Amino acid sequence: MPAPPARARENAPRASVQRPTAPRPSTGPTPRNARRLARALLPWVVPAALLVIWQTGSSSGLIPPATLPALSDVIDAGTYLAETGDLQRNVLISLRRIAIGFALGATAGLLLGFAVGMSAIAEGLFDRSLQMVRTIPHLALVPLMIAWFGIGELPKVLLVALGTLFPVYLNTVNGIRGVDPRLIELGRSYGLGPLGVIRRVVVPGALPSILTGIRYALGVAWLTLVVAETIASRDGIGFLAQNAREQLRTDQIVLAILLYALAGFLADLLVRLVERFALPWHPHFRRGAAT
Predict the structure, then answer these.
(1) Is CB count within 10 Å lower at the N or C end of the chain?
(2) Separation between Cα atoms, residue 57 and residue 270, nearest integer Å
């Protein structure tokens, strides 16, 4: 069959070829970002609902002001104390007591925990005595501390340290004993000395339990400070609440309670951040893990 002439081939209709168009960038949130946002907002649902119920009930008269003042009244009381400088001064004093007492108690708990967890001799020397002291409610020592040291800074710091020591100690010992002995032998077979085994094997293995003890100890520390400042103190958040009770200022009492709750939340948040940075290998604390 003869081929069509060249002009006929030129005039023949050509098949249209459609080029793929680039996808338009999405302007809305991706499902992954939406899940992250929902995960971040989820813990605040209940506190926000409670605050709304609190304010609504107090404003409508369902909750008597003498029982629980409105949230707006508590905020006004905090604003007034902040303007006079009493709020900042008392908060800073309580934070200083917590910092010193927690540092002393946590350090002692870590040192004793590592000694008892790594040495049978240290366990025989210290563990039974510490367990006996642990069963004594440290808050029952408040009158004795006042009789010994008065109502200055020392008894409050010592009580916070005592309340902090045992949670850190127990969790440190349990964390060390929970490390697989085969990993320790493996580290020694690779030429690690005693300090190398502790640093490279024991500490990473025991760190989740140690940080759990620190989180629990922070809560005990604030609880101890509340009692110590309420019973014998001339300043601090507990003194602020005690002084408000004598003046029948319920709004300032509730303000002090909220300050303790906020301080405890921030302390727990700080430990959670430390967990994420110190335990990148752990599946529960891995940074940037997919949710």
Answers:
(1) N
(2) 33
- CA nearest 52: which of 67, 72, 37? 72
Q: Nearest-CA neighbor of 257 among 233, 222, 231?
A: 222
150 in the Ramachandran plot: left (φ > 0), alpha (ψ -120 to 50) or beta? left
pLDDT, tens only, 261-284? 888 888 888 888 887 877 766 666
Separation CA 97–CA 234 (nearest Å): 13
Residue 61, CB-side half-sphere exposure with 13 Å CA sphere: 0
Architecture in CATH for domain 66-278: Orthogonal Bundle (1.10)
Alpha-carbon span 164 to 166, nearest angstrom = 6
- Separation CA 81–CA 249 (nearest Å): 12
H and E: helices and strands count for the chain: 14, 0
Token representation of residue 291: 């949710």
Query: Nearest to residue 177, comparing CAs of 119, 108, 110, 125?
Result: 119
* pTM exceeds cut of 0.70: yes
87-119 residue pLDDT tens? 899 999 999 999 999 999 999 999 999 999 888
DSSP per-residue string spanning 49-95: HHHHHHHHHHHHTSS-TTTS--HHHHHHHHHHHHHHTHHHHHHHHHH
